[in-house]
Design brief:
The chain has 341 residues and is of the alpha/beta class. The chain has 13 helices and 11 strands.
Length: 341
Amino acid sequence: MGNPKILLVKLSSLGDVLHNLPIAWDLRARFPDAQIDWVVEEGYVNLLKPLLSNQHFRGIDRIIPFGLRGWKKSLFSLKTWQAFSVFKKDLQAQTYDIVIETQGLLKSALVCALANKSPNAIIAGLANATEFSGYEPLARTFYNQSVQVPTQCHAVDRSRWVMCSAMDIPLVVREISPQFYPPGFVEQIPNSSIFGLHRPYILCFHSTARAAKRWPQENWVALGKSLAAEGYQIVFPWGNAEERSISEALAMQVSHSLVPPAFSIDEAFALIKGASLTIGVDTGLTHLAAVLDRPTVEIYCDSPRWKTEGYWSKQIRNVGDIQSPPSSQEVLAASLELLKG
């Protein structure tokens, strides 16, 4: 195929972007001189910056920020349309031979339509939904290669199915362990500067957008008390006002715990890197800990474990499953196994 120009389209959300990272490295390994660009929502650009090519390695060549979430708040303002024009110009600065869209949503498919493409370009996307994932069948009309994937397919594997079909290469799934970030990246992350944080500490990501995926607060309290008794500072992060109030309620019941201030994605890298352990429900920041290959316990309460579980590292424990949340004792046992292992 020579040196193709490839566009990856995975806009959001945090966990979905993370689970799409391996195909960038898969492509680079197979096509070392390809141009690889990626369109992503503005809020997740910093997840991709560590992949940008530099003098030490070849990763992705361009990140193209997409501001749809902000644009929707003021759809008819001049500023919004000016921002859209800048995005379109940036997107169309290159002509692509391959467009790989792994989200299966209309907004992503429209990005494929806007991109400049060579006359025989391949536009590949999902032909079907996977269970418990968002999917909009109309998106298929924007592809010329619709890829059928198993209905129960891990998010990493699903992206690899589409990528391998688009590039006409043998399917890469579990036989090649996924790479997420450059070698040595975690070691280069600076220590967190959050005030009041001291080592050793354990992060507890208790909240997620869908309430049914949360673990009962009394379980977090029981777990927090047990781990605090082992000498760890328990840290309860939050992302909005409701989550902050939950964090504060939990911290009141767990001695010497910390409710940190709001933090950016860059600070999340540092916070996770320095933690002795991350424990969290099925949410993006828990998955960030897993893809960074840090000790992580992933708790599943109302989502299927097969969809996003960390399967690539001995430092990850996945507990619970859809409609089968784990007990506090199960999570404690998994935590102590990693802490003392």
